[in-house]
Amino acid sequence: MTHAHPSRPELPVARGLNQRLGWSLTAAALALPGWWWLRHQRSAAVRFFAPGAGDVMRAGPLRVRVFGTGETVILLLHGIIASGDTFGATYDDLGRSARVVVPDLLGFGASMDTAGPCDAAAHVAALDAALGALDLDQQPTTVVGHSMGGVLAIRWAATHPDRTRAVLTFGAPLYRTRDEADQRMGAMGPMAALLAGTGRVAEAVCAWTCRHRGIASWLAVGSAPDVPVSIARGGVNHTWASYSDSLDSLVRDGGWAPALETLAERGTRVVIAEGARDPVPVPGRAGLLARQLASVRYEIHEYADHLLPLSDPGWCRALIEQVTSPDDDWGPTRGEEGTEATNGTS
């Protein structure tokens, strides 16, 4: 026969601890959204952002936004895990004197659906096809790129030196080797290293994202309070193939170096710009390149991080206008010259 034991009355001390624990968990649950909202509202990238204007259309394999008039073409290339929406309304003024083309790069954003590879050669070919479809493949072109888009800008320009007027990069990952790229990504923290690579964890996360893209887009918003909501949500629009191909052939590949030498031999203007707080570029490398190559100039934003095109779009737009202008006085490098790092991350 089983005897029921009378329940013990909850001791006052235990009751008090449970209440305090409950209040603490409740406070934490309420504090997290509050912290996110405050950080989101204080973010310069959020405050300065508004969607850009222009006609959205399909041009060859790419979705593009086109606006402005002029003989010169300005091509704006976004970074990895992003889309052309990065270049918002502040950049609309570029259309006063140029034809501006803002693509979603091959395999990303609204250009996500592609059956072929998304390596460097495929990206260059896709840009060529898009410009050809727009009848803009013969005009003088200034090509601008953020992050991975900066590397692509250099490599695209080197294949079209005759019509490239200037190249401008923001926060470009100019890594010479795969090992150097992995070291730089590893220095950004263990989570960044896991998700920024092409290992099993990154592939598994990307596969889950593809299956649950709606949920993933809101998780991206929650993890990036400094980024406009639409930009964060759009960052999930890619596939494992487009991400891994682009990372391996553009970010982890040193092909930018011979391309930059090709541009320097022809005297093509190249500006390498970065934020002083950006962890992506190799410290000192841009300044060293500017000293070694007469056609290269280095610009540094004194407080920006890797979100520079979003956090200070006015500064970026002014620099684009400057390098595009035929009257620009191509003066000496501005910013900290520095010495390229030699501590295992360069």
Explain what this protein looks like in three dimensions.
With 346 residues, the protein is of the alpha/beta class. The chain folds into 2 domains: 14-46; 48-324, Rossmann fold (3-Layer(aba) Sandwich), CATH 3.40.50. 44% of the residues lie in helices and 14% in strands. The chain has an 8-stranded mixed beta sheet with strand order 1-2-4-3-5-6-7-8, sandwiched between helices. A hairpin with a 2-residue loop joins strand 1 and strand 2 (62-67). Helix 4 (148-159) packs across helix 11. The protein is globular. Residues 335-339 and 341-346 have low confidence and may be disordered.
**Molecular shape:** globular
| CA-CA gap between termini | 76 Å
- H/E element order: HHEEEEHEHEHHHHHHHEHEHH
Radius of gyration: 24 Å
Class based on secondary structure composition and strand pairing: alpha/beta
Topology:
Blueprint: H1 12-42, H2 44-47, E1 55-59, E2 62-67, E3 73-77, E4 99-103, H3 120-133, E5 141-146, H4 148-159, E6 164-170, H5 178-186, H6 190-196, H7 200-211, H8 213-223, H9 229-234, H10 240-251, H11 256-265, E7 269-275, H12 285-292, E8 296-301, H13 308-311, H14 313-324
Parallel strand pairs: 3-4, 3-5, 5-6, 6-7, 7-8
Antiparallel strand pairs: 1-2, 2-4
Helix pairs in contact: 3-4, 4-11, 7-8
Comma- or semicolon-separated keywords:
about 350 residues; alpha/beta; Rossmann fold; 2 domains; eight-stranded mixed β-sheet; 14 helices
In short:
The chain has 14 helices and 8 strands. The protein is of the alpha/beta class and 346 residues long. α12 links the parallel β7 (269-275) and β8.
